[in-house]
């Protein structure tokens, strides 16, 4: 791939997306990509920089996989998981090697990815974890259904960890939720010591869910792969859906399956928007 950092102040990148969930992707396998928090924030600025939901750095593998993927949010914080971003990086690596399968290493573990005949990419996001200490929550609660102080009007929440923390609310009309207002206080709620991704879900039927998301460190996004996985797991745990469903996001649809072994698979399209180069000396 052509997205790489050089030893100069030039950073070459690809702009990719999965259903509008967009990423700046750089290749750090041959030359180090050393950015400051201010530089991550400057590149993430959609008016003065490039703009992205997550910044993905491809690094040499650490445990025998195809590559290690580091993930940063537009606020400069590091993220543990990014399902749509994993599919984008997997597509790049599979095209590079001419294979139909690759393992992407992340903080959240090793993620098996494969390309389908129609070009879509499936990623095994690993097992869903519902233990309150794994979310994590600030106190011991039944993660299947619990009240979030200050958000009682949205009904009980369901908590799921898909490599990162998700809090899912089931509402009559997800499109009517004012995410820009309710998202920030819920992300930073004292009940969620490591902050959380917040999903609002409407059940269309047992195999179709409508979801909107406020992502931790990124805000409102067109799609969130790990969030879609969390929505399906939460719906199945609450008895609202089967273990396979189509999740309709603002940017399109993902197919999610909660396998019998506890792993969650996500399938969807990937796309490259453009390539470019940044003069790092002009950024923060």
Give a verbal description of the structure.
There is one protein chain. By secondary structure, the protein is an alpha+beta fold. It has two domains: 10-124 and 269-276, Diaminopimelate Epimerase, Chain A, domain 1; 127-267, Diaminopimelate Epimerase, Chain A, domain 1. Helix content is 16%, strand content 38%. It is built from four helices and 17 strands. The chain has a 17-stranded mixed sheet that branches. β9 (157-161) and β10 form a beta hairpin. It is globular. The model is unreliable at 4-8 (pLDDT under 50).
Order of helices and strands: EEHEEEHEEEEEHEEEHEEEE
- The 3D shape can be described as globular
CATH architecture of the largest domain: Roll
What's the gyration radius in Å?
Answer: 18 Å
In percent terms, what proportion of residues is strand?
A: 35-45%
The CATH superfamily title of the largest domain: Diaminopimelate Epimerase, Chain A, domain 1
Q: What number of structural domains do the residues give? A: 2
Put simply, the count of helices is: 4
Top-tier CATH class of the largest domain: Alpha Beta
CATH topology of the largest domain: Diaminopimelate Epimerase, Chain A, domain 1
The percent range for helix content is 10-25%
Overall strand count: 17
Structural class: alpha+beta
Question: What is the makeup of the main sheet?
Answer: 17 strands, mixed
Task: Catalogue the unreliable spans.
Answer: 4-8
Mean pLDDT: 94
Distance between the termini: 27 Å
């Amino acid at each position: 791939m052509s997205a790489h950092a050089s030893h100069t102040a030039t950073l070459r990148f690809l702009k990719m997306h999965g259903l509008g969930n967009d990423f700046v992707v750089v290749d750090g396998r041959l030359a180090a990509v050393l950015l400051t928090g201010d530089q991550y924030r400057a590149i993430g600025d959609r008016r003065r920089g490039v703009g992205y939901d997550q910044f993905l750095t491809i690094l040499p593998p650490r445990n025998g996989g195809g590559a290690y993927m580091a993930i940063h949010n537009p606020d400069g914080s590091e993220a543990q998981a990014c399902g749509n971003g994993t599919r984008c990086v997997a597509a790049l690596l599979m095209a590079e090697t001419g294979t139909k399968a690759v393992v992407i290493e992340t903080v959240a573990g090793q993620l098996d990815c494969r390309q389908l005949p129609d070009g879509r990419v499936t990623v095994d996001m690993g097992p869903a974890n519902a233990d309150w200490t794994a979310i994590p929550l600030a106190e011991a609660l039944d993660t299947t259904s619990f009240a979030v102080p200050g958000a009682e009007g949205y009904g009980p929440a369901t908590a799921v960890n898909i490599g990162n923390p998700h809090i899912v609310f089931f509402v009559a009309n997800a499109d009517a939720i004012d995410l820009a207002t309710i998202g920030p206080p819920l992300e930073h709620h004292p009940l969620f010591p490591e902050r959380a991704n917040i999903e609002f879900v409407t059940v269309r039927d047992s195999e179709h869910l409508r979801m909107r998301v406020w992502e931790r460190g990124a805000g409102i996004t067109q799609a969130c792969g790990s969030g879609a996985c969390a929505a399906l797991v939460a719906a199945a745990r609450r008895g609202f859906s089967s273990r396979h469903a189509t999740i309709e996001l603002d940017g399109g649809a993902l197919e999610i399956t909660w396998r019998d072994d506890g792993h969650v698979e996500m399938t969807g399209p990937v796309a490259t928007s453009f390539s470019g180069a940044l003069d790092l000396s002009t950024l923060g």
